[in-house]
Amino acid sequence: MSAFIDPPVKIPFYLRIGLWVARRVTGKDLLPPRLLAWYPRAAVGSGVLEALVAHHDGLLDERMLKIVRIQASYAAACAFCIDMNSFQYEQALTQEELMALQGRKDANDVPSFSLRERLALQYARLISQTPLLFPAAFIEELKQHFNEREIVILASTAAQVNYWARLIQALGVPPAGFSDHCEI
């Protein structure tokens, strides 16, 4: 399975540096940044977006942000995103928790999820649906359990996954082979 288009043969030097960094971080020669080389401005902008993603901030620890990224990946039905974001999920999630993120189990029935985690998961699903609808009662509950900075980090984390999901699906990029959990 391959993307809808092939990457350019000639990639500008400054983008090759970014590709080298991506390869060092992920251990793989990823197709999305190579395809973005057709339009270097998109490649640079996407690289900056990716470099600034939150991985830990105050009470929003790595686990919280990882489950938000995985939830947004499943909600956007992006096999590449699921593959990438669920890589080594077992270091942060149980099998039961993963089933909830996949929609095979109700997150409210998973006792290991905290109330904040359940709210963050619901927020990620709402951010990833079309049309975007945010019930007032849910937003009030979210504001009771997260401060303004945390809400921005949750929203931008899920939105970043949605950016990549739309771009990757629009280019027909298949999963990169990080995990065996990319079923949608």
Domain module tally: 2
In CATH terms, what is the architecture of the largest domain? Up-down Bundle
Task: Report the portion of residues in β strands.
Answer: under 5%
Shape annotation:
globular
What is the mean pLDDT? 93
End-to-end C-alpha gap: 17 Å
Contiguous uncertain segments of 5+ residues: none
CATH superfamily of the largest domain: AhpD-like
Task: Report the sheet with the most strands, covering strand number, pairing sense and barrel closure.
Answer: none
Q: CATH topology of the largest domain, what is it called?
A: AhpD-like
User: What's the helix-strand series?
Assistant: HHHHHHHHH
In helices, the fraction of residues equals 55-70%
Please tally the β strands and state the result: 0
| Number of alpha- plus pi-helical segments | 9
Radius of gyration: 17 Å
Give the class-level CATH name of the largest domain. Answer: Mainly Alpha
Overall structural class, as computed from helix and strand content, comes to: mainly alpha
Detailed description of the structure:
The protein is an all-alpha fold and 184 residues long. It has two domains: 13-51, no CATH class; 62-170, AhpD-like (Up-down Bundle). The chain contains nine helices and no strands. It has helices spanning 13-26, 31-36, 40-51, 62-75, 79-85, 95-101, 115-127, 136-145, 148-170.
